[in-house]
Amino acid sequence: MTSPTDDQTPIARARPRRFRVGLAVLGLGVVAVVGGFVAFLSQLRNTEAVPDRKADGIVVLTGGASRVSDAMELLATGYGKRLLISGVHPSSGASDISRSLPERQAYFNCCVDLDRSAVNTRSNAAETRRWAHERGFTSLIVVTSNYHMPRAIVELSHAMPDIALIPYAVVGEKWREEPWYEGGPTLRLVLSEYVKYVAAKLRVHLDDLGIDLNFDWLETPPNSSAPRRPTTAQAN
């Protein structure tokens, strides 16, 4: 006479083990995602702080309110010799941008370059590398929104590891008025940016291994039929 346990096959006995292993893997995945998100949040500044040193040049990645005006302020106060505005709409010119900053108009005539080719953060990095190398710059102040800065630094440092990058994170009014932890659009923005940040980290790691994986589809493509701000190629 056999007991119920005698009828269990090796496959049947393995099922609970596979279930436990699956739960453990799932748990580790959740911990990794949550831990990564916390680490990402720790990089986001809530206040603006002037750079701790000057640089050869300044680059601003368009796509958020007040980025260009803050970059122009840094240029005017001598934090860099020259400014690159990366991601300018192809139909826009320096005069279009300078009209919104009349007090800085003189700098557009001498010290500002426009990049109209970049359409996302990865191409921002490629165009910035070309610009910096052409001018022999070895250090850059990077101006972009606080939520976008971690991903921008990932892409820029990968594109030009020989150039020192000094972040200047722009904190918008909406960020101050609607903290991400209160939910709503700011939380959705942070979660979306975290996904793009993880994808950028994965892409550059695979690129170092010789694997070219393109995640550019994660960034919203420009909509040529919709009205846009003159300087913005797309929201980064």
Q: Which characteristics define this entry?
A:
236 residues, 2 domains, 5-stranded parallel β-sheet
Strand order of the largest sheet: 3-2-1-4-5
Compute the separation of the termini in Å: 71 Å
Q: From the structure provided, what is the oligomeric state, counting identical versus distinct chains?
A: single chain
Using the coordinates above, name the CATH class of the largest domain. Alpha Beta
Computed structural class: alpha/beta
Sketch the topology as an H/E string, one letter per element.
Answer: HEHEHHEHEHEHH
| CATH architecture assignment of the largest domain | 3-Layer(aba) Sandwich
- In terms of DSSP E residues, the strand content is 5-15%
Radius of gyration: 23 Å
How confident overall, as mean pLDDT? Answer: 84
Query: How many structural domains does the protein architecture include?
Result: 2
- Which segments are poorly predicted (pLDDT under 50) over 5 or more consecutive residues? 221-235
Described by strand count, sense and barrel closure, the largest sheet is:
5 strands, parallel
Q: Helix coverage percent of residues?
A: 40-55%
Shape: elongated
Number of helices: 8
Per the CATH scheme, the topology name of the largest domain is Rossmann fold
Give the beta-strand count. Answer: 5
